[in-house]
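Researcher: Next entry in the queue.
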Amino acid sequence: AQLQASGGGLVQAGGSLRLSCAASGRTFSTYAMGWFRQAPGKEREFVATIYWSDGSTRYADSVKGRFTISRDNAKNTVYLQMNSLKPEDTAVYYCVSGQGYPYWGQGTLVTVSS
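Model: Structure for this entry, 114 residues:
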């Protein structure tokens, strides 16, 4: 049972990346899945979440209008499309699952160069 995140990498400011997270076993939640991130020297912070029942979404103010979270029900997978990336988006991005987010993936590094 695991959350497998992928899609991180190095991109220039203004560029785009898409993160993916596939849930298996007990880590798949019919409640919600989402993303947190942790930048070097900073606390972990919420990025976005999607509620499985109705597909509603919620975003951190810092990413609204630039990031889009979506899901593929058949694949138990959630995506984070990140556009207009900024250097301050540089962080390790963690996929999370469940009510209260008890399940965490291993993280994928996103580096945005200026």
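Model: The radius of gyration is 13 Å.
Researcher: Noted, moving on.
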